[in-house]
Amino acid sequence: MTVxxxxxxxxxxxxxxxxxxYVMGQEVKDVTTNPFLKPSVMAFKATxxxxxxxxxxxxxxxxxxxxxxxxxxxxxxxxxxEDLAAKVKLLRKISHKIGACFQRCVGFDALNTLWIMTNIxxxxxxxxxxxxxxxxxxxVQKKDLALAGAMTDAKGIRxxxxxxxxxxxxxxxxxxxxxxxxxxxxxxxxxxxxxASEEIVALPTRAMGPEDQDYAxxxxxxTDTEGIKIVVGRQLNDARRxxxxxxxxxxxxxxxxxxVIFDDVFVPMERVFLLRDWEYTSQLVEVFASFxxxxxGGCKAGLGDIIIGATYNLAKQIGIEKASHVQDKLNxxxxxxxxxxxxxxxxxxxAVQPCPNCWWVNPxxxxxxxxxxxxxxxxxxxxxxxxxxxxxxxxxxxxxLKNPKLKELLAKYLQGIEGFTAEDRLRMVxxxxxxxxxxxxxxESVHGAGSPAAQRIxxxxxxxxxxxxxxxxxLAGMKNxxxxxTNAEPWRPSETEKLVKEVPTKRQEQKSx
Length: 513
Ligand code: SF4
Hints:
By secondary structure, the protein is of the alpha+beta class.
């Protein structure tokens, strides 16, 4: 059972007894058959398929020292820079099969974040959170559970800290501490894949001060828990899923996001990993955000490949694939896609080790990866639109194509080069529309794992401007204090590396050799 079959995952999430899940105002009990959620469930399932498909199982299966068995990579704790690179590669490959976000990486990153943070807390003398986390991790790995990571709070008034908010539940908080657990209240917003998950791993969304300690809480609960209410968000073209079509709505795979309301939810103490530990929240946010930003170099590059392939095919369908301006646009799409991927791989192979047995991405390069992703998908999309032509916004529906009175006429007027049918043209146009203009490539690329400003804050924290200035002053012949470091990069340590500075980081180890 350790590497679970996809069908077992579907069976496990089929019926909800306690949690309430709402889609467009209606409560949904079976998420596997609901027309809105089914594409998202199938996309989540692809992470289970990956452990069995011949082309992905090498990447998707990995040995876990925690339970001494093979596990699905999505529940694995990274043990090397190569493990981190394998994550990026696996994400690129799964994107090829789904054309959307497959949603499981947020929980994956939450697990790795808690592993690092509870290790750091243990080094500082607080050992209980790590003990609880390791027991939880073993359960997750043995059962191959489907996790959703829940980070972003409702946030209320953005200029106010959690404890200053007029709505005390604007951030998820500890409302009561009992001997056997805690009561939590509040809501997490934009939670990817949550209705298709079995467990929610909740983390604080921002750095907290002592006055915010009730909001400094990290925990895990089964999704099907009393008091959990999930309101699934709407998406572009979502009503097409109710049409029972097979072309227009990319009906089989899609992601969803939801508002998760914790209405006085009880969390047993063995599932609580941060409890009023406000002093670790800044680092926790940094670790999680960097993990997820690195992953975008894989999944968004995979979506880029789909758009490149579709652009090429649409050009062929109308006979312009050899035109120099089309080849130039394809090369630009390739350059943009491979740059995102290269950054994600660099962030993996230049990993840092904030504690023994902990592997974290390179924070600078992970943030660069995500910042590229905030820009490049829209550029790739623009090039695809350019080549595809106005039909991308004006194509008739599949129902027109299936109407006996229109079928032949549309076949005549939509066809270009012989060998491609009108249906081929419509299918490819819809693919570009659904993938490139959908949530995963356009909106998630900007705001997922933190909005663009969040990466720029990280650049200014991590890049040592003073060092670069001294280097420049020296070459300009000005008075300077240039002292060359052995590091090639003018980078400062991250908050996390500073917190553990008495424990040698990988960078420091390399430096001392
Ligand atoms: Fe995974 Fe990418 Fe979706 Fe994040 S956006 S959950 S990294 S597929």
